[in-house]
Amino acid sequence: MIVKILSSASSDFHGVKYNDKKRESGAGELMLMQNFPDGIDEKSKQEEVRNYFKSISKSDKVKKPQFHATISTKFQNHSKEELTEIGKHFMKEMGYENQPYIIVFHNDTENNHIHLVSTRVDKTTGKKMDDSFEKLKSQRALQKVLAELQGVDLDKELEKLLKYKYSTAKQLELLLERSGFKFIKNRENDTAFDILKNGVKQKTIFDNQIVFNSKSDSKRANQIKAFLNKYKEVYSNKVFKVIDNREAEGIEDDQTKRNATPKIEFESELQHKMREMFGIDIVFHHKDGQQPFGYSLIDHKTQKVFKGSEIMKMNEIFDFTKEKLDIFVEGPQAIINIVPGQIVTQKTVEKVPVENGLFKPNAEYNKITCIERYKASGRNGVGILKGFNLKNGAIASSFAHDSHNLIVVGDNDADMMVAIERIREIGGGYVIASEGKVVEELALEVMGLITNRPHEEVDAKVAKMKDIAYGMGVPKGLDPFINLSFLALTVIPEIRITTTGVMEF
Questions:
Q1: Is the dihedral of CA 348, 349, 355, 358 positive or negative?
Q2: What pLDDT is stored for residue 251 in this prediction?
Q3: What is the DSSP pairing of strand 429-434 with strand 294-299?
Q4: Residues 390, 278 share a domain
């Protein structure tokens, strides 16, 4: 879990305005308003809330009275209710228990997070709140809250990790990093290392306290190898790049957001299942987000770190998928707009969500790709689709007029790639994917266009898949498969997707 204190450019309490915009767009939900006077509540306009903050924050000594923080969990590890409870206790630890503050939950990123907005001017005395070493204080406050609410004892956790068997300092560093710790050289002593958690030093250890263990465990290695061989036939071994961009989430300033460094990881369903079922954590090694060159394995059952080569070759286990879905964005983009009730499309030019220079799809702006499927040319065009409204998943079809190439739409690359790979495996058809898994499929085993199964069975399957698509956000007045099948047909105006990219007519 990450906490950040966000900068405030003025005394105008932009944090309130920012979060209100999120609420208006459906990306935010007001979870709590604390210590406001009668007449100011969840129904009040944001101007009223801002004006109240400004009225109690008039002080010549406080240039930036707004207190604005975010608390973010990885993916959906904590619900909005859990985050709100953590936020309440966090504000108490920060000394804001009696101050007016709001907590707003955001659902517009892969990581659940909350925003907390208050004032650094004491509403009772008019004096400045103690904000010395505020960032460090916030890290310690969050640690204390997590310990109280969730029983997270960092000292015990750290001592347990240090008792694991590892053969190199790099393995120890990896082990600590996977649990959220940072392992760095002590600045004052070359023989010492500092272990930090969210910027707070937890422990200093010395060279002579680190015990390396290079003894092999062939019995356990063979067990793990057997697990991998068995379950790679059950769960997907496709590996996808995942970007953890929590450092940039919630930042209002575009320049600061661009400068935030995202954390890149590589993940697969098989990897998740090994961790979930057996406590075996597989970690891929890569440089600058390029395809992994190796892996390590942390076995929490035997408390040992293995080199990947001790188990089996990485490419014998995992299938690495090359990314071909990126759209580099500079300025407004041409958008394929679906016209309700019709198969024609309309072109608009709009600003779209961007992350690290790449288009970041969402429920409003889906990503669409058309992939050549006859000559293995590798050609695929990628565009931006509006009006399909698909959320938390992808839909793929090999039934795409007139050339019947593979056409895929989604709000995230991982699910799009899952759908693409499944289409290939079944020889063509319809596939719906969500959260890294195939939700439903219809194989069209004859050229990816026709099935030999009875029409009653096919009708029932298509009806079921339509209901799933509608449940994922596709408008009810839209046939998800019929509309998708016409989006690559270039004789229909006015803008289409092809294997070479977006074409306008």
A1: positive
A2: 53
A3: unpaired
A4: no
Residue 272 in any domain: the answer is yes
Give the total number of structural domains in the chain. 4
In angstroms, the CA 272 to CA 236 distance is 10
Burial classification of residue 106, based on how many CB atoms lie within 10 Å of its CB (0-12 exposed, 13-18 middle, 19 or more buried) = buried
What is the model's pLDDT at position 104?
93
pLDDT per position as a tens digit, 469-495: 999 999 998 999 999 999 999 889 999
Examine the fold and report which residue of 119, 134, 150 is the final residue of a domain before the chain moves on: 150
pLDDT band at 267 (very low <50, low <70, confident <90, very high): confident
pLDDT at 294: 87
Copy the structure tokens of residue 481. 């498969």
Q: Is residue 328 part of a domain?
A: no
Examine the fold and report which residue of 174, 209, 244 is the final residue of a domain before the chain moves on: 209
Give me the chain's average pLDDT, please: 87
Give the phi and the psi of residue 23 in degrees, each rounded to 5: -65, -40
Question: In terms of residue numbers, what domain contains 407?
Answer: 333-504
Task: Determine what percent of the chain is predicted with pLDDT higher than 70.
Answer: 92
Q: In this structure, are 482 and 500 located in the same domain?
A: yes
Q: Are residues 410 and 269 in the same domain?
A: no
Helix axes 218-231, 269-278, angle to 10 degrees: 130
Predicted pLDDT of residue 149: 84
Pair 227, 203 in one domain: no
DSSP conformation letters of 233-285: TTS--EEEEEEE-TTTTT---HHHHHHS--EEEEE-HHHHHHHHHH-EEEEEE
Q: What is the pLDDT of residue 355?
A: 81
- What is the rounded CA–CA span in Å between residue 164 and residue 309? 19
